[in-house]
Amino acid sequence: MLQSPRLALLPLLLAGCGALPPAATGPVHPLASAQAGSSATLALLETTDLHANVLSYDYYKLQAEPSIGLERTATLIAQARAQYPNNLLLDNGDTIQGTALADYQALVKPLACDQTLAIYKAMNLLKVDGGGIGNHEFNYGLAFLSQVTGNQFDVDSVDAGKPRCAGPAFPQVLANVYSVKTGKPLFAPYHIIAKQITATGPDGKAITSTVKVGIISFAPPTIMAWDKRWLEGRVYTQGVRETAEKFIPEMRAKGAELVVAISHGGLDDSPYSPSMENGNYYLSQVPGVDAMLIGHSHQLFPNATSTVPQFNLPGVDKAKGLVNGVPTVMANLWGKHLGVIGLRLRHDGKQWVVDKSATTVEARGIQNADKSYVQPDPAIAKLVAEEHAATIAYVQTPVGATDFRMSTYFADVGDVSAIEVVNQAQAGYLAAYVKANLSQFAHLPVLSMSSPFKSGSAGVSDYTDVKAGNVALNNAADLYLYPNALYGVKMNGADLKAWLEQSAQRFNTIDPNKAEAQELVNTAHPSYNFDAITSADVRYQIDVTQKPGQRIKGLTYKGKPVDASQEFLIATNNYRASGGGNFPGLDGSKTVVASPDNNRELLIAYVTKEKNLTRAKNGSARSWRFARVATKGPVVFHSAPNVIDLAQAAGIDNVTQLKLDDGAGKGFALYQLDLSK
To answer: For 501-526, how does the pLDDT look when each residue is reduced to its tens digit (9 = 90+)?
Structure first.
């Protein structure tokens, strides 16, 4: 789920091979085993966080979107395979959820047992060699995951008597999620691939050999909080480090010459915990890990210009792609990049070993240097044409209408046009539920928190934008991106303020005396963690000149200061209520309503009931403002170009467009925020 705006789209590079000895030429001579001194290059190709983006298409905007899609990554895969004949294509997870196509196949017209998910059909066509499992694989429940992966889970809630269903044609592994019922891993914890390669013998002649590559996968242990409704009492997790320490020696004993960790998480050097979300900094220190394919954070690594904190830790080489000396790649998201690790192998007489000094790591983008995009593989669109057409027909179903445009282009500076209707739906649902089922809480005020899920993190087209007119199902999915469940939490005034303080970390600390331009947005704090209230009853200011934790000023409810002990019920989602985003006090203990109902579905129900949304009623209740302060230099932020009229329509009159192109080469415009107004 994590994202970071304006990730660099690297040009397609065929660099790296120049640093390696040329491949041997001439006839290939088979050997039972390679001799000492033999050498080879094995490329590990990574896709990650595809989120069911099979095609270069935006189902929310109902238009082609060339900046995404596995059908374009397929072209990079073909190019990399031509460069590196010895290769393994591996997927990092978060594969089956994330688009309307995914929801259609999981929720609207669920697959039959003998059918294969569209994303897996495409991956089968590309001959993926192995895959890991991410956190979003669990979003639709264990029964669905069991079915579509072709695994028979021995857990409560899954009928073990049902036949094994169709799944992908490649092995999927996951080592750190266990069945409560059996105490055994849910998936095979690892798999050893016997890969035939062409190598160079010590005499310079080409030979064939086999290298045994063990793949092991890890999911974030935090799935237990994020998908508690599906997982509690059914599965449990173990930490990344201790799981690796358990299984890697076993893999080696079974013949694995190389061990590739496919770990769905990022990097964090906080003190190690078995429950930590991004444990790969510690995974890299486990003996026996030869390479890491990471993900989850929706970032690009290696990336020499990255300012993301996780890539600027001690022992992390963000230019060479090394984490504590281990070659590591993260290939962004949605098929925008392909990770390529060129493992240089040498045979020591007993087995193949990695020469890290000659190994290369890169992430190749589907966008070319001239800003065009590589052409898609046409075979993939043909393969999923039926599912694609059915999804488009489904998402065009109208549910209501709006007289104003709901967008997130200026959500960072106060536009609530795409947020208030979500908050209204959530608050209305929670209030009705409490009245009917929890009379002991019926006297408490009900508030709601929501955030702008799309704020440019994946590119200039990555914004919620629902035009005035009919509101269809695809628009609802644009307004609420994730298949979360509605949760209600009971918080006091101090908790509420702490929640808002955490949200306010979306902004950098602004020095009013600084004459140079200052960036408003802290890109390390994703927009989906920028929760906001949109209620006429609540008012507060965010003072960005103060350090984090001291920014929320003048918090009132119905005109009176909020008391630290005053209690509220707050509607949110299962991710946030259960600890997602590390918000103070939100660890699952404050949850009083864990609804089985999906936030997006209750939003659709709300719009259907309202029929006609208006800005006055559904898009103008802005609870927060920036505290006024005069700054000597400009305070700037980035958004799509030529949409300043949307800010003005939302009543935001202290924003101007400075430059049509901010100069970063990604299509964003540069805007200025006048904090004195």
So the answer is: 999 999 999 999 999 999 999 999 99
Sign, CA dihedral 495-497-503-506, equals negative
- Tell me the HSE value of 472 on the side-chain side, using a 13 A CA sphere: 15
Asked whether the beta carbons of 442 and 435 are under 8 A apart, the reply is: yes
* 70-83 and 118-125 helices, crossing angle to 10°: 20
d(CA 72, CA 68): 7
Torsion of CA 477, 500, 412, 453, to 10 degrees: -20
Closest CA to 405 of 99, 611, 599, 648: 648
Dihedral Cα 655, 657, 662, 667, nearest 10 deg:
100
Nearest of 360, 362, 356, 358 to residue 339 by alpha carbon? 362
Residue type, 494: A
- Here the tokens at position 198 are 């062409």
pTM of the model: 0.78
Rounded to whole angstroms, the Cα distance separating 102 from 394 reads 12
Tokens representing 225? 């909080």
- For 214-227, b where at least 16 C-beta lie within 10 A, e where not — what string? bbbbbbbbbbbbbb
pLDDT digits (tens, 9 = 90+) for 218-240: 999 999 988 888 999 999 999 99
Look at residues 600, 576, 520 and name the one whose alpha carbon lies nearest to residue 1: 576
Cβ pair 151, 171 in contact under 8 A: no
Q: What is the pLDDT of residues 179-210, one digit of tens each?
A: 999 999 999 999 999 999 999 999 999 999 99
Q: Is 412 left (phi over 0), alpha (psi -120 to 50) or beta?
A: alpha
